Amino acid sequence: MVVIQKDQLMKVFLESHNINNPYTGFGQFNLHLLKGFKHCNDPDIRFVVHTPKKRFLRRLFGNFFSYKYYLGLRRYPFFAVRKKYDIWHSLNQNTKIEPKHEMPYVLTVHDINFVDEISNDINHPRNQKFIAKLKRADAITYISEFAKKSTHEFFDVPSVPEYVIYNGNPIKEIIDTSEYQPPKTLNKKFLFTIGDFRERKNFHLLVEMMQYLQDFQLVIAGNDTRPYAEEVREATRKFVVVDQVVFAGRVDDLGKQYFFEHCEALVFPSLREGFGLPPIEAMVYGKPVFLANTTSLPEIGGEYAFYWDHFDPKKMAEELLDGLNTYQDNEEEYSNGLKAQAAKFDWNIAAKQYIDVYKSLR
């Protein structure tokens, strides 16, 4: 075995400032990928993490990683990171932070939702920035086959190595939730959903659906300070389901696992998902998951998930009740099938695959 000397270590810069908010999808991706890198403990690589949360990460990882403090000014060319690294990895396609100098560059694409949500004009500045990142990349990774397919459908992707590396499951161990205090308004069996409050999540449709599910409550977890949250709250008043819908806000791992453990099902009718972590988290518990039959969700949910093909709230409620009956009539088969699907997604495996990409560029 060849031992690489310390000065021969590959230095990989992780542009990971989105870890600033670990309760978002990007934040979860950043945090759990770092955990995977630490688990792999590759002796040939030294990681430099770009983050505004140095103290937080040091508490988690000690000195395993080196850290470069994130400054918003780094998005401007004069303040760009000047040091050269063996690899620069942009951990998501939205970041505005780019290196000052050319170096081997890995780009991870989660989704191209901005095409639908901002502009489908290829000359729009948002799309042009993404094109510039594509052109800079020496390797491109995608978090799902859907993310790869949609990128190719809209953009001219350069001829560089491409890889699909699935995200892992954030739930590595089951937490004892017996001490968790759920909201006092939670007094019925409940459905659960979680995510950032954006229109594509379709939370307002779930609220409208609840008028046909009087025996259930709905718990919505996530950052409910966004403008869309008021639209969702207004829907609870319009459809007279205020008492059925519980806004849990941002929840930590303890709270999240409590809701997954005790819910009747995860309901996740999101219109645009590059991957979708909540379904595999729910499947750890063998819980039924009801997903939109769109984008990456069938790829992630597998054969034992239930899918909504249309978004009429009354029809969604009917299909949910039918699905719950199917699940209950075949509980062992469905529960085991869902758990097996969840087990396919592992952050340690994902981290090793990213490391292999880095080494291929050396």
Rg, alpha carbons: 21 Å
Strand order of the largest sheet: 3-2-1-4-5-6-7
Mean pLDDT: 93
Range of strand content: 15-25%
**What's the number of helices?**
13
Tell me about the largest β-sheet: 7 strands, parallel
Q: So what's the overall shape?
A: globular
Helix content: 25-40%
Intertermini distance: 19 Å
Secondary-structure class: alpha/beta
Strand segment tally: 13
Could you name the ranges where pLDDT drops below 50 across 5 or more consecutive residues? Answer: 1-6
Summarize the helix and strand pattern as letters: EHEHEEEHHEHEEHEHEHEHEHEHHH
Please write out the topology.
Blueprint (H helix, E strand, L loop, with lengths): L9 E6 L9 H16 L4 E7 L2 H8 L4 E4 L17 E4 L14 E5 L3 H5 L7 H12 L2 E4 L2 H10 L7 E3 L25 E5 L8 H7 L7 E5 L5 H12 L6 E5 L3 H10 L2 E4 L8 H8 L4 E4 L4 H5 L4 E3 L4 H17 L1 H12 L4 H14 L2
Parallel strand pairs: 1-2, 1-4, 2-3, 4-5, 5-6, 6-7, 8-9, 8-11, 9-10, 11-12, 12-13
Helix pairs in contact: 1-13, 6-7, 6-11, 9-12, 11-12
Walkthrough of the structure:
Helices cover 38% and strands 16% of the residues. It has 13 helices and 13 strands. Residues 1-6 have low confidence and may be disordered.
Summary, kept brief:
The chain is α/β, with parallel strands linked by helices and about 350 residues long. The protein is built from 13 helices and 13 strands.
